[in-house]
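Example record used in the benchmark description.
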Amino acid sequence: MPSDIRCACRADVAAITELLTDAIAPLPPTAYAVPNPADRHRVLAAVLRMEVEFAIDEGVVDVIDYGPIGDESDVRLHLAGQGAGDGPAAVALWWPRTEPLAELLGIPDYDHRLNEAAGPYADRFRELSTLRDKYRPTASHDELAYLAVTRAYRRRGLARRLLAQHTRRDEAVYVNVCDLAAVELFQRRGYTIREAVSLPTGREQWGPVVGLPRKGQTLFWSMWRPADDMT
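Model output (structure tokens):
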């Protein structure tokens, strides 16, 4: 396994939250959850921090830190200061899923904390969670909750390495993917699309989203890789 991948610790919470927030804020589900752009980054960061803190304690959070990552171009990138910094440049957050997210997380006062973090948008986050659970397989599996790479380090294979770090051939894996390039990445690794999940009937349409079909109606693609038959 790659030696530069490590398990995240509590000291990484702020950096991981910021990395995830920057990566997720432009995506359709976030625009749906927090339709006011002025509130989006702040609200999303507050919600994500709650999940990251729990995942570091109870789930699996793998990170790759800033710095040289294996070839000369990466060394030059680091030395030039393009995205250079301390802490994670890429993160994958996993947890086992056999029940709905709110029940699984077991965060004390989860609903109260979500209300505090998301304010008037809390019910929209709950609605997205319900949508994700609607298409979830009933078989025991791991869920890749978040996979993100800071902008300067993208297209350098970090996402593939983080997937390989955790994924074993005898595990079933479920993931929700928000853009077509990511869909193709997972398809190359044996995942299939279960459902293209659209906005709930009767809710607002938030207009065109670059890179997505049907003028932004698709929020995410539910994808699944079943466990291999080991018998």
